[in-house]
Structure formats: C-alpha cells, structure tokens
Specification:
The chain is built from 5 helices and 5 strands. 41% of the residues lie in helices and 8% in strands. With 128 residues, it is mainly alpha-helical. The strands form 2 sheets. It has a 3-stranded antiparallel beta sheet, with no helix packed on it. The chain has a domain at 8-82. It binds zinc ion (ZN). The site of zinc ion has 8 residues, from loops.
Length: 128
Amino acid sequence: MSAGSGGDVDLTARLCVELPKLAAAADRHRWAHKLDAAIADVRAGTPVTQALAAHHLPIDLAAAHNGQDQISRGDPGLLDELNIDPVTVTGAYTCPGTPPCPRRAQPDADGHEPRCAIQGKTMILRSR
Ligand SMILES: [Zn+2]
C-alpha cells in the first residue's frame, strides 16, 4: 500500500504517455475493459492510483514512480515488459487535461501534434 498524497499528478503524466502501450497490452492480456473503465474514472477526476486499484489493474505505476523522472531500473514486471519510455517533460505542448498533467511533448517527425491519450485530445500548444 502506498499512502499517497502528492505525486499523483506525475502518475497522471505517466499514464498519459503510457496509455497507448498499456492499451495494446490490455488487448493482448484481456483487461482492456478494465483499462477503459479506469481511464473513464481518471477523466472524471479520480486519482490515477485509485482508479487503477478500483478496477484491479495489474499496473504498478506507483512503484514505477519511485524512479521519479525515468523508469529505467527496478520497474515492476509489466512496465518492464512494455519497455516504456521515460515521460517527456519538455516540449511546446501541454496536456489538455483538467488539471493538466505535467507532461510536455513535441510534434512527431511528420509534424503531427501530440495527443493526450487519457483525454483523447490533441495537446495544447503553449505560446511562451
Ligand atoms: Zn495528459
């Protein structure tokens, strides 16, 4: 059990980045319905850890969070398996979520705007 206040915003950013990979894994491992339900809760404002726990998802984002900005060692099995990249926190685009997660991103090589997987929306270009 992680007694958690704080840090959840980072988990939201992590989920924002990792959702496409998690969704692919969910399809393979037959927990897509759980993931969908958890994401719906997150969109509705439920903290990420709580939403995942409520739907018995086999994702330990909190453990991965102990690695702070990069998750490159000692990760829980599933995240290892997925070979998830560190969350990007630089770039001109910010998350469209409410509240926004601290994730930042940049257009891809083809110039496509980055999308927030949680919100299902294009990320917002900040004029700095
Ligand atoms: Zn986001």
